[in-house]
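For this section, I looked closely at the sequence of one protein beside the tokens encoding its backbone, which the following lines show:
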Amino acid sequence: MTHAAGPAFPGRAPRLLSTGKYGSHLMYRRSAAAAVLLAAALTLTACGSGGDKAEPAAAAKPKPPAASSVPDPADSPAASAPAAAAEAKPTGPVLPDAKLTPKTGTFKPNEKQYLSGRVPEKMDPAAVLQSGQESCQRVERTAKRDKDAATGSVIAGEIPAAKDTITILCPEQKPILDAAAKGFPDGTRKSPAAGSYRALTQSTTCTWESRSKDGSVLSAGPEAPLKAGEKIVATIPAGAAEFTSTGCYAWVPA
């Protein structure tokens, strides 16, 4: 296929250019590049239009007290897989204590104590130990920034097997465990102890109420709209049969 290139000059025949084999390839490349750019633009448009829909749900999720924190490696999906295995002792066959040995080196006495009855029969004990160590590191790092946040993570069940993990593998974090033992997580609590409690969150969506046995509301809050960073305190009166909170993360005695 040929086409005329350039203007016609008097007395001179128009010069014809042949696209040839290489010209066809160039035209193909340009068409392909244009298609790729169009697809990318459509993808970005789709992402931009759907992204805003998820924001309200994320904003309503209870938040720990730290307003902004450095992402913790132990929170990543890759790290959560072995942690799930260590959350509770398995109900199936487990490795006997005599076989709790790493591929290289040896386990310390406290590490063997932690692993006892906790390693599924076909699982590497080192992987289970690693998840416990990562939980200890998470508590330690969080406590350095904000002790309330570390306490709340234990209360909320975000630290797998927190009691055994801290007591056996990182006893220096026992004060966090002791503080968590006095609190309770967000949600519904039956027969709550009367008193004042502080929410371990900065979320302005935290709401709560206590009810009597007949279902009547004894107390509720907040009484006024919350401001960012403001402490949230709930009072549970004597005789309350149920205390329910939403978006409050965790509670400790005020």
In short: Residues 1-60, 66-86 have pLDDT under 50 and may be disordered.
